[in-house]
Each structure stands twice: as C-alpha cells, then as structure tokens.
Amino acid sequence: MDAFLSALSMLTSMDALLAVVAGTLVGIIIGALPGLGSLLAITMALPLTFVLGQGASIALLLGIYCGSIYGGSLSAILINTPGTPQSAATVLDGFPMARRGDAGLALGWSTTASAFGGILATIILAVASPLLAKIGIRFGPVEYFALGLFALTCIVTVSRDNLVKGLLAGLLGLFVAVVGQDPVTGYLRYDFGVFDLSAGIGLVPFLVGLFALSEVFWRAAEKKEEIGPVIRSAFQLPTLSELRRRSAVLIKSSLIGTWIGTLPGVGAASASMVSYAEAKRSSPNKDKFGTGEPDGLIASEAANNAVSSGAMVPTLSLGVPGDPITAVMLGALVLQGVTPGPRLFLENQSLVLFIFMMLFVANICMFLGGMLMSPLFSRILRLPEPLLMACVVVLVATGTYSINANPFDLLVVLIAGIAGFLLRYNGFPLAPMVIGFVLSPMIEQSLRQGLILNQGNFIAFAASPIAAVLFALTALFLLWPVIRLIQRRVLQGRKSQPSTNSN
Fold it and tell me: Does the keyword Membrane apply (predicted)?
C-alpha cells in the first residue's frame, strides 16, 4: 500500500504530468515526420533527463515512446509514407482509405486501435512483470552474466538482413563501452592518453550522435524524391457498433503485439506485420485487404502500440531490452539511477507502479492528442526538410553540451554521427551496436565478479540452475537455424528414398 501511494504521489506531481503530456505530443509530431522515428525522438530527449527529476524524466521518455509509434501512422495514412518503420503495414490499408475520402475515419481507427493496444498491453504488463520478478532474489553475478549473454542473442534477430555485419556492429558496441576505467581494478583502458576518455564514452553523446546526427548526414546524402499531395480530412472516430463488430481483431492484434513485445529484439515492425498477416488470414473481409479495409489498419496499429508496453516486460523484469528503442530507454533508466532487472520489483516497487501508471496515462494522452492535433498534421508534414534537419542539429548540439558543458561531448557526437553514417552507408545495422554498448557493462562486471567468486573457474558457472538454463537457451537460439537446416535435409532425403529404391 505504501508503494502504491508513493507511485500515485509521483504520478500526480505537476512536473510528471506536464512531462508526459509534452512528451506524448512531441512524440506524435516526430513520429509523423517520415524517417525520424521513435529512436531519434528518444535520443534527442535524453539530454533533458539530466535537468528533470526521476519521475518527470521517465514520464517524458514514456510519452515520447508511445506518441512516436502512433505518430508514424499519420504520414502513412496521409501521404503513403510510414513515419516510422513500425507503421510500414499501416500504409497497406491506411492510405487507400484516405485516397477514397475516408482519411478522417482512418485517423480515427488508427488512434483508437493504438490507444486500445497500448492500454491492454499495459494491463498485461502490470500482471506479468511481478511474476517474472519473483526469481530476482536468486540472481547473482553468474546469473546476470548468463542473462546478459542471452540478451546479446537479440542481435541475431535484429540483424537478419546481414547477420555478419550485425554481429560485427554488436562487437563494436561492446568494445566502445569498455573504453575508460576497468570496473574491478580501476586501470585505464584504451584512453590513448586522452584525459577525457578516462571516464569512458558517455551514453548520451554516443547515442545522440549515432542516431540523430547520422540521420542528418544520411538525409543530406540521399537522393530526394517527390512526395505526393497531402490529404486533408476531418478527424472521425469509429462508431460503437463498428467497434463492437471489429473488437475481435482489436483484442487479438493487441495480444499479438504484447506477446511479440516481450520477445527480446523482435520489435514493433515485426509485430505489426505478423498481426496484419494473421488478421488477413482470419478476417471475414480478407479479400478487401490492401484496398482500404479497416481491419488491416487496426491490426497494424493495435499490435505496434501494444509492443511499446510489452517490450517493457523484459526491460523492467530482466534488464533485457525488448527492442532497440527500449535498449536506449534502458540506458536512460540507468542514467537516472535505476537498475532494471529482477531485483527492481523487490527494491523499488513504487517506481515500477509509477511506470505502469504512466504508461496508462501516456496512452490516454496519445488518444486525446491524436484527436486534437489532427488538423495540424498535414501542415507539419509539409515542413521543408532542410529546416527540419537544421533544427535537429541545433537541438543535438545544445542539448548535449548542456549536460556537462564539455566540448569533448560535442566531439563524441560528431565522431559517432560520422561513424553511424558510414556504418549505414556500408549496410551495417545500428541497433546491434546500441545493444552491445548498453549490455557491455553488465556482462563485463558480472563475468569478472563471477570468476572471482569461482576462483577463475568458468565451468563452475553451469552449476547455477538459472545460469544453466539461460546458457542452454542461448545455445538453442543460436543453433536453431542449423537445426532447422538439418531437419529439412533429412526430410528431403526421406522423400527421395522411395524413388531411389524403385530405380
């Protein structure tokens, strides 16, 4: 009861409420601008968390997270361009609805489905996270190392387009994080005689440069394409009878998004595609998908917004980022003195309850913000891109410098931005690098402590039942493609056997 009252006190504070409202509205706007996305929105806001309190900082980030995922649907519906990758499936039926004159209804369905998916996932989060946290008291350095190693396997999931480059990017992130003091001995590593590197690479300048500034460079280098006309239409909520008729796809898509959100490394883009495919398979209107069918729009938006809450389950309960965005949020929580993981529910229940409540509030703000801001969306989407990118550079520079008033941080931003651009240009994904950078300190420190406890015997790590299970899951996850390949070859061999005997 004391934890609940403490969380409620944090929730009703004016700075937290203003932060979640402002974060949600800003997230909607940034999400609606094609190409910027949730990751950029959160990394740009990271410097503000140093001047805000813990509650307001978390509220700001959660508001931006929820708002930006929803915001991507606006440009998807209005100009046939998903504002974020999570809204890629929204284009398939959202824009056809707008083109036939139902843009207002499409925006209404998008807003309703997004809020419903987020709220339902938050309720599930509040129930599931404490269950996962019950094992927290049994976690020590060995278990945390095994957990960190298992979390690294999500690099494989986010690097399916090019696994080798994804693994190299993850290793690069692990390496960058070890620059500075050794956590056990205190010796300096890879500082190259530069005093500013003795404290390591700062999380904020590294992430801001890697994503925000590299995005500016990328947009300056790419070829410009003409964007189609912006469609204006009055916002229109679906009727209660329509909601009842499509409630099944709403609930099912929200559950799919919540489940996929709890799987480390999968992300909202995959969730929306899986949900869209399932809705198309089971919907009575399957033949209308792709021509402006609301079920397709509902499936995409309910699922990708449910991921925003579902991804917090592994982030809070296990300290494992559910997707690249929560990897950045994981770093932001650490900056606020919060250590996500199994012990969080035992040591800081009030903060966990506050996060649940704030996710609920953020989804309500997202729903109201979508209704109120719809007349402005088409104008915002027509901002000249050079002006928009100039604003991003100014925000990145002033925000990063304001943290420590250290010009070296600006140099880190510039180098990280150039490195991010070069990596993207050569086909290297950035998400594995973030995952490696964020997880590196936990993995290294836990490994070192575990070796000290076991007198340097790494094999003794397997004596822990939890660690043994996590090691087995890690091996299974990594070897599963090989196992599937062997199974397919065995089946092909059995099918070809009768024909060989007959000859």
Answer: yes
Q: What is the pTM of this model?
A: 0.64
List alpha helices for 283-323, DSSP H.
294-310, 312-317
Q: What angle do CA 173, 36, 103 make, to 5 degrees?
A: 145
Q: Which two tokens stand for residue 209?
A: 């440069």
53 CA to centre of own chain: 23
In contact, 339 and 316? CB cutoff 8 Å: no
Stretch (H or E) spanning 374? helix 349-380
Q: Token digits for 108?
A: 């209404």
Q: What is the pLDDT of residue 264?
A: 57
For 42, counting Cβ atoms within 10 Å of its Cβ (0-12 exposed, 13-18 middle, 19+ buried), the class is: buried
DSSP string, 20-36: HHHHHHHHHHHHHSTTT
Q: For residue range 447-469, what is the model confidence (pLDDT) as tens digits?
A: 888 888 888 888 888 888 888 88
Can you name the residues that pair with 180 across neighbouring β-strands?
A: 189
Residues 6+ apart with CB under 8 A from 174: 436, 437, 439, 440, 443
Residues of the chain falling short of pLDDT 70? 1, 3, 34-37, 79-83, 85, 129-139, 154, 156-161, 204, 223-234, 263-270, 318-324, 341-343, 345-347, 375, 377-383, 385, 388, 395, 399, 402-403, 431, 496-503
The residues near 97 (Cβ < 8 Å, ≥ 6 apart) are: 77, 103, 105, 106, 292, 294, 297
Residue 448 Ramachandran class (φ > 0 left, ψ -120 to 50 alpha, else beta): alpha
What's phi and psi for 321, nearest 5 deg? -65, 130
- Residue 188, classed as helix, strand or coil, is strand
- In the three-class reduction of DSSP (H, G, I as helix; E, B as strand; rest coil), residue 224 is classed as coil
Q: Cβ contacts of residue 26 below 8 Å, gap of 6+?
A: 41, 45, 63, 64, 67
Residues facing residue 170 across a β-bridge: none
Give residue-wise pLDDT tens across range 131-146. 655 555 566 788 878 8
The answer to whether 411 and 401 are in contact (CB under 8 A) is: no
- The residue behind tokens 């693994």 is 167
Beta-carbon contacts of 163 under 8 Å, excluding residues fewer than 6 positions away, are 156
Contact (CB, 8 A) for 377 and 78: yes
